[in-house]
Amino acid sequence: MPISFENRVAIVTGAGGGLGRAYALELARRGAKVVVNDLGGARDGSGSSDAAQRVVDEIEAAGGTAFANGASVTDEAQVAAMVAGAKERWGDVHILINNAGILRDKSFAKMTIDDFRAVLDVHLTGSAICTKAVWDLMREQSYGRILMTSSSTGLYGNFGQSNYGAAKLGLLGFAKTLSLEGAKYDVRVNTLAPTAATRMTEDIFPPEMLAAFNPENVVPAALFLVSQDAPTGAIIGAGAGVFQAAYVTLTPGVALPEGERTVEQVAAHWGRITDRSGEIVPKSGSEQAMLILQQLQGLKQ
Predict the structure, then answer these.
(1) Is the pLDDT of residue 47 over 60?
(2) In Å, how far are 100, 102, 104, 106, 118 from 112, measured between CA atoms?
(3) β-strand 235-239 against 242-245: which pairing, if any?
(4) For residue 242, what are the contacts with CB-CB under 8 A and spacing of at least 6?
(5) Using alpha carbons only, what angle is made at residue 73 by residues 79 and 16, rounded to the nearest 5 degrees?
(6) Where does the pLDDT of residue 197 fall: very low under 50, low under 70, confident under 90, or very high at 90 and above?
(7) Residue 87, pLDDT above cutoff 50
(8) How many Cα atoms sit within 13 Å of 51 on the Cβ side?
(9) How many whole angstroms separate alpha carbon 160 and alpha carbon 110?
């Protein structure tokens, strides 16, 4: 059965091009009313454009419903006004896709703290600002679907992207925590790590890869993760038609008895500590603490 977004209101940030545009178009095609948010400009965050309105024009030409918004995701007042505008026009906000981002790639040795802070402000703090603006509304209506945009850089690292990687892994921890806090209100929060050819990656990917990694190949994962039957707390990779699940795992580890908790014993047991046999995926951070207590109980038996 086709997945429909009829009677849903969605906000997509950074939707003036690339992935955000693709998400907005498909949401609208499937019946959603869409706020197309984009500050516009270059991938480093500078400049301005009417990119959001052009996407709205595409949606309306196809018979859909949308309006453009130029709020900066780092400006709380502008974001609050965007959400208020959507609520006033359409009554509710059901979906938020945090997609806005910038790049300021340099090796850490050459990176300024301003470059580091700017990327965190847009990706991490900007996602928090947008999410905070809809959080109470979604809790009150007992329905919400929120998507964070992470990256393989956040999950696994990438040379020259320490600022981007820090922001993207921060989003993962943010999403995992909100998936727990939102559960009783049916507010589901997931994380997508897309690989796509966009203005952010146009001179990173070789030309022969650009066609395979078009943004439309990421859309199915993104829209499933904000659909009515979406999971919560998932981390999904998507690119070129390949869809993957990522996990933060924990090994069983080693419990060292009192008197043996030394640097030397950690070194001596390193192979066992890092042995992935029997590793698990904790459902929350507190579960790790409980597993530690279980290991200590084992020492006493």
Answers:
(1) no
(2) 22, 15, 10, 9, 10
(3) antiparallel
(4) none
(5) 105
(6) confident
(7) yes
(8) 21
(9) 9
pLDDT band at 206 (very low <50, low <70, confident <90, very high): low
Is pLDDT at 208 greater than 80 in this prediction? no
Write the single-letter amino acid at 101: G
pLDDT interval class at 200 (50, 70, 90): low
pLDDT at 198: 57
* pLDDT per residue as tens digits for the range 228-287: 999 999 999 999 999 999 999 999 999 999 999 999 999 999 999 999 999 999 999 999
Rounded distance between C-alpha atoms, residue 129 and residue 166, angstroms: 18
Is 164 part of the annotated catalytic residue set? Answer: yes
Q: Identify the active-site residue in 23, 156, 164, 247.
A: 164
What residues have CB less than 8 Å from 233, skipping those under 6 apart? 175, 176, 179, 180, 189, 190, 283
With 70 as the cut, is the pLDDT of residue 204 above it?
A: no
Q: What is the 3-state secondary structure (H, E, C) of the chain?
A: CCCCCCCCEEEECCCCCHHHHHHHHHHHHCCCEEEEECCCCCCCCCCCCCHHHHHHHHHHHCCCEEEEECCCCCCHHHHHHHHHHHHHHHCCCCEEEECCCCCCCECCCCCCHHHHHHHHHHHHHHHHHHHHHHHHHHHHHCCEEEEEECCHHHHHCCCCEHHHHHHHHHHHHHHHHHHHHCHHHCEEEEEEEECCCCCCCCCCCCHHHHCCCCHHHCHHHHHHCCCCCCCCCCEEEEECCEEEECCCCECCCCCCCCCCCCHHHHHHCHHHHCCCCCCECCCCHHHHHHHHHHHHHHHHC
Task: Record the tokens describing residue 116, joined without a space.
Answer: 């580091």
